[in-house]
Specification:
The protein has 420 residues and is an alpha+beta fold. 53% of the residues lie in helices and 17% in strands. The strands form two sheets. Strands 1, 3, 4, 5, 6, 7, 8, 9, 10, 11, 13 and 14 form a twelve-stranded mixed β-sheet that branches.
């Protein structure tokens, strides 16, 4: 029940020395402000980094063959070998927890020899032979036409999907892209799609200068037989590819007569493992933000506690009179705790409001900037963080007022009335 007299008394007590009250409240204001800003900054950094993983299956491992490091079954050390088409089907049959298995081949490379011709223009690009599943595993957006499909795979169609960077090197402004032909190592391919990479890393420009053709057409056109250069393997949700890859490697080593303990024979890059490390880093950053913010907030709470001790000392005679006319210890304790909580929550809510204003300004600035390649985006805090901050404030107010309240209820009426 709202007690008007009680709240008038609280406001009168806090406004008796406005300058002291403002300085005291500033500690809590600054603590909660720092906490929200640190959490929002961490979230902004996380959003920026995660943009680089958007559209990408992070539960993925890339694997390729390397020379063996041990002799096995009469076969020599340092033997080279290749994955085959049959390995892909064998993995599908023996590992039901795998979602995508994409065999890949590559022609050319960064700053490689000229291998793509259109009319009188010649350029050097990386050409990949891929399956349609790659569209779900890598962060690429089709801006015109389509990506490779299974009709291309089954019929070994000589189709190609090119990056926006390829267009600037091979086409004149205004030329029709879709349906045109490019010659890759002397073989004509029809362009059926144009992609744009979503990546924000330092290789984004080079990733726009790549060409994708059907895996089967690649093998046929460039005399690769049934050789698979490497594979991109993604596990189903709920299954960690990191936990599964040891069994996959063991299975492939057995198929190619490689020593089961030869760790060097299969190279790999575990994207899920790297992604987990990044997630772990953001967990640590969030912990640091809470740790630093709470420490700063605690210093403000200590300041409020000290001021409340002074207030109790100044109001010793008042407390004594109230005790003498029948006020219970619980009433006195409630009065002191309410003053402490009210001051703490008021200062804290102003801190949250100020932080929200600063974040709104930062987001408005970021919205008007070119975010391409930026590793910081949309710094914000969710409702859960605001609720946690409110709980911290309530607890802080109770903590700040507890000791002064306990001292207040121990004041004896006779001693208080004698105090000067």
């Amino acid at each position: 029940m709202f007690d008007k007299d009680k709240w008038n008394e609280i406001l009168q007590a806090l406004s008796a020395n406005v300058f002291r009250t403002v300085l005291t409240a500033f500690g809590v204001f600054w603590g909660i402000f720092i906490l929200v800003i640190l959490l929002a900054a961490g979230k902004g950094l996380e959003n920026g980094v995660m943009k680089d993983f958007s559209g990408m299956s992070t539960n993925t491992v890339f694997l390729w063959t390397q020379n063996t490091s041990k002799p096995f079954k009469g076969l020599p050390k340092n033997r080279s070998y290749n994955f085959k088409n049959s390995d892909v089907q064998a993995l599908r049959e023996n590992f039901p927890n795998l979602m995508y298995i994409s065999p890949r081949n590559q022609l050319g490379g960064y700053q490689g020899s000229n291998n793509v011709i259109r009319g009188t223009k010649t350029q050097a690009y990386t050409v990949y032979g891929d399956y349609p599943e790659l569209a779900y595993q890598e962060s690429k957006a089709i801006v015109k036409g389509r990506f490779i499909n299974y009709n291309d795979i089954n019929q070994k169609r000589k189709t190609a999907v090119i990056g926006e960077g390829v267009i600037s090197g091979l086409y004149d402004k205004g030329e029709e892209i879709l349906g045109s032909y490019i010659k890759i190592n002397g073989v004509n391919f029809m362009v059926v799609g144009v992609y744009k990479s979503k990546s924000n890393n330092g290789n984004a420009e080079e990733e726009q200068k790549q060409i994708y053709v059907p895996f089967t057409a690649f093998q046929q056109a460039f005399n690769y037989g049934d050789v698979v250069g490497w594979m991109t393997i993604t596990a189903k949700d709920g299954t960690s590819i990191t936990d599964l890859k040891a069994d996959i490697f063991r299975f492939l080593r057995t198929r190619h007569d490689v020593d089961p303990d030869d760790e060097r024979a299969i190279g790999n890059f575990d994207l899920y493992e790297e992604f987990s490390k990044i997630n772990g880093l953001f967990v640590i950053l969030k912990f640091i933000a809470y740790f630093v913010g709470v420490l700063v907030l605690l210093s403000g709470v200590i300041g409020i506690s000290n001021i409340m001790l002074i207030v109790v000392k100044e109001r010793t005679k008042e407390i004594g009179i109230r005790r003498a006319i029948g006020a219970s210890p619980g009433t006195i304790r409630s009065q002191i705790l309410t003053e402490s909580i009210f001051l703490t929550i008021l200062a804290g809510m102003l801190g949250i409001a100020a932080a929200a204003g600063v974040l709104a300004i930062i987001n408005a600035i970021l919205d008007n900037m070119d975010s391409e390649g930026m590793m910081f985006a949309n710094p914000s805090v969710d409702l859960g963080v605001v609720f946690s901050a409110l709980m911290i404030l309530v607890f802080s107010g109770l903590l700040a007022g507890f000791i002064p309240a306990q001292i207040a209820i121990k004041v004896k009426p006779v001693d208080a009335l004698r105090a000067e």
